[in-house]
C-alpha cells in the first residue's frame, strides 16, 4: 500500500494573508447577492416569511407596504450595535459587511421577473437559493447579521444552545406569519426554512450545533497552539498508534461550533496541509463554551 505524501504542497489559501481576506469578501458578496435574488424571486412575491429579519420584512411589506430592504436595514442596525456590545468588536466587524450588502442587493434586484406564483415551488426553490447564499457567506467566515446576532446574544445570556435560540426566534416569526398572512402561508414558510437549513448543511460539514474533529498530523504541537490561540477552543491530545506504520503518534480531538468548522479546517490546512482530519457530529456537548445544564435550586 503506497502512502501519498502531500506535505510539500503549500496551503491553498494563507489563513491570515490578504488572499484569504479577499476570498472571504468575495464569498460574502456573492452569497449575499444569491440570497437577495432568491428572496426577491421566490419568497417576497409569494409572501413566504421563512424566519429571520428577511421574514419580518415580508410581514412588514404585507402589512405596512414597507420596502423590505429598508425594513432589514432598520432592524439590522440596532442588532449590529447589540452584537458589538454583547459579542465584541471582532464579531461586529464580521457581521457589518453582510448586514449592509444583503438589503442593498435586495433593493437593487427588487424588480426582477417572478418565476412562479406557486407557493410550494417558491418555498422549495427559495429555500435552496437562500441556503446556497447563506452557505457561501458562512464559508467566507461572515454573517448577514439579523436574528442570528440576537440568537447568539440569547445563547450568551441564558445558556440556551444556539440552535434552540434560532428555533425560538424563527418560530416567533413564523407564528406572526400565521396571524398576518394565514396558516397556510406559515406552513409554506416552514418548508422554506427547512430547505434552507438542509442546503446550508450540504455546504458545511453538518447541521449539528457542535462537531468533534479528530486531527492526525505531524505538526500536532503547532496545530494545537493555532487552535488554542486563533480559534480560542480547548482540545485533548490522544495517544494512538498508526495501523500501517506502528508508530506512536498524537491525535488531537477538538469540539467546535457549527460556525467554526470552516475556520478550523483553514487553521489545520495552513499549518500542515498533509494533515488527516475527521469531522463528525456531536449530538450533545456539556461544558464550558457549550450548552450548560440547568441546575436545580
From TrEMBL:
PANTHER family: UPF0750 MEMBRANE PROTEIN YITE, UPF0750 MEMBRANE PROTEIN YITT-RELATED. Gene3D superfamilies: 3.30.70.120. It is a multi-pass membrane protein. This is DUF2179 domain-containing protein. Residues 233-287 form the DUF2179 domain. It comes from Paenibacillus helianthi. The lineage of its organism: Bacteria, Bacillati, Bacillota, Bacilli, Bacillales. It is found in: Cell membrane. Signal peptide: none annotated. Keywords: Cell membrane, Membrane, Transmembrane, Transmembrane helix. InterPro entries: DUF2179 (IPR019264), N-reg_PII/ATP_PRibTrfase_C (IPR015867), UPF0750_membrane (IPR051461), YitT (IPR003740). The chain crosses the membrane at residues 21-44, 69-86, 91-108, 120-138, 159-181, 187-207.
Amino acid at each position: 500500500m503506497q502512502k501519498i505524501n502531500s506535505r510539500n504542497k503549500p496551503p491553498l489559501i494563507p489563513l491570515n494573508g490578504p488572499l484569504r481576506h479577499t476570498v472571504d469578501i468575495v464569498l460574502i458578496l456573492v452569497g449575499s447577492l444569491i440570497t437577495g435574488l432568491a428572496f426577491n424571486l421566490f419568497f417576497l412575491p409569494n409572501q413566504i416569511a421563512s424566519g429571520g429579519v428577511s421574514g419580518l420584512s415580508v410581514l412588514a411589506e404585507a402589512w405596512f407596504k414597507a420596502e423590505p430592504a429598508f425594513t432589514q436595514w432598520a432592524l439590522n442596525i440596532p442588532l449590529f450595535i447589540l452584537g458589538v456590545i454583547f459579542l465584541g468588536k471582532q464579531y461586529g466587524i464580521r457581521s457589518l459587511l453582510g448586514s449592509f450588502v444583503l438589503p442593498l442587493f435586495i433593493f437593487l434586484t427588487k424588480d426582477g421577473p417572478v418565476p412562479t406564483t406557486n407557493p410550494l415551488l417558491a418555498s422549495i426553490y427559495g429555500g435552496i437559493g437562500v441556503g446556497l447564499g447563506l452557505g457561501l457567506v458562512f464559508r467566507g467566515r461572515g454573517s448577514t447579521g439579523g436574528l442570528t446576532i440576537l440568537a447568539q446574544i440569547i445563547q450568551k445570556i441564558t445558556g440556551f444552545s444556539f440552535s434552540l435560540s434560532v428555533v425560538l426566534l424563527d418560530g416567533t416569526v413564523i407564528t406572526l406569519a400565521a396571524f398576518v398572512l394565514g396558516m397556510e402561508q406559515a406552513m409554506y414558510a416552514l418548508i422554506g426554512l427547512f430547505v434552507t437549513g438542509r442546503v446550508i448543511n450540504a455546504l458545511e460539514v453538518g447541521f449539528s450545533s457542535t462537531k468533534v474533529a479528530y486531527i492526525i498530523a505531524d505538526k500536532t504541537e503547532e496545530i494545537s497552539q493555532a487552535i488554542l490561540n486563533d480559534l480560542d477552543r480547548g482540545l485533548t491530545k490522544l495517544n494512538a498508534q498508526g495501523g500501517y506504520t506502528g508508530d506512536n503518534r498524537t491525535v488531537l480531538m477538538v469540539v467546535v461550533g457549527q460556525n467554526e468548522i470552516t475556520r478550523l479546517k483553514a487553521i489545520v490546512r495552513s499549518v500542515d496541509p498533509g494533515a488527516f482530519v475527521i469531522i463528525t457530529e456531536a449530538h450533545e456537548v456539556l461544558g464550558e463554551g457549550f450548552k450548560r445544564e440547568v441546575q436545580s435550586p
